[in-house]
Amino acid sequence: MIGSLTLLTLLGLSSGSMYTNPVITTNTPDPGVLFDDGIYYVVSTSGDDPNPFEIHTSTNLVNWTSQGTIFNHKTPGYPAWAVSDFWAPE
Hints:
The chain has one helix at residues 2-11; strands at residues 32-36, 39-43, 54-58, 65-69.
């Protein structure tokens, strides 16, 4: 649902910002977007990525910064069940 993220980005244009799609250059299907205390958070489907559910943040829906992933396969304590099929995190 890249369209959902694009729609949210269009809403951000009221601030006068210009952008070029895609606003997030990594693979970001099925984005779930949350807004809290002036910051937008997006997490998306990751398929079989070994480091699933990358988190991006933005204050304007145009400029996004990666904050890492929810699961990192190199982190001690990585869940044994977290091996594949990471879909729709919301």
